[in-house]
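Researcher: Next entry in the queue.
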Amino acid sequence: MPRSAHPLRHAVPTFLLAGFCFISLDATAKWLLVRGHPLLLVVWARFAGQMLFATPFAWHRAGHAFWRTDRLGLQLVRSTLLPATTFCFYLALRYLPLAEGSAIMLLTPIVIVALSGPLLGERPNRWRWITAIAGFVGILIILRPGSAVFHPAAAFLVAAAVFNALYQILTRKLVDEDVSTTLFYSGVVGTLGFTIALPWSLTGVLPHSRDTGLLLLLGVLAGLGHGLMIRAFTWAPASMLTPFTYLQTMWAIGYGYLLFSQFPDGGSAVGMLVIVASGVVLAWTEHRRGRVP
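Model: Structure for this entry, 293 residues:
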C-alpha cells in the first residue's frame, strides 16, 4: 500500500483508536481476573477470541491462502512476543491498579525510540527523544517508593513493556506483508500455546456463565486493536507513532475509577500528567514540522 503524503493525518487517529481498544481490553481482563477467573483462562480467551475474529476477516480479505507468508520466521518470533507481553501484563494487573499499571507499560515508546535506529534504520529526531525521556521521568515518579505500584509485580510490567516494544518494532518490519496475514499470526501462536497449557490451569474451575460474553469481548477488542495498529504502522514510522501511546493514560484512569473505584494518588497523578504532556508536546511539534497539513 502506498504511504500517504501526510502520514499522521491517517496514522495517528488509527493508532489512537487502536490504543482505546487495548485499554478497553485491559480493563475487561482485569475485571475478569479480580472476579476470580484463572490467569491462563483469561489470556487464552483473549487469543482464542482474536482468532475467531481475525480468521474470517483474513480469509475474506486475502482468500484461502491468507496464512501464507514470505517471512514465516519473523511472523512467528513477533507473534511469540505478543503472548509474552500479555501474560506478564495480566499477571501484574492482578495486583496493581489499572491506571498506574498501564502507565508503566508506557516504557514501550522509550524502548522503541532507543531501538528504532539499530533495528529499523530510523533516526528519531530530537523532540522524539525529549518526549520519550520526559515520559520515562513520569514513569519513575509513578514507581516511587510508597506508591501503589511499588510492588514486586511491577517487574512483570517492565518485562511486558520490553516485549511489547520488540513486538511493535517487528510489526514495523512486516509492513510489506498483508495486514490480514499479520493479524492472523498475531493470534494463532498465542492460541495454540495457551490451549496446550489451559487444561493444567483450570483444575475443575469453569467461567461464570454471566462472564462468557466478556471472555468473547476480549478477542474482539484484541483483534480490532491489533488490526488498527498494524494499519497505522503501514502509514508512519514506529518512532513517530509510539509516543502517542502516552495519551492512553487518560482512558486507563477513567476505566480504573468507573470499574474498580481506583484513582491515582497525588504523586501518581503528577507522573501521569508528565506522561500525557510529553505526548501532547510531541503531537504539537510534529504538527509544526509540517507533518500534518
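Model: The chain has one domain: 7-288.
Researcher: Noted, moving on.
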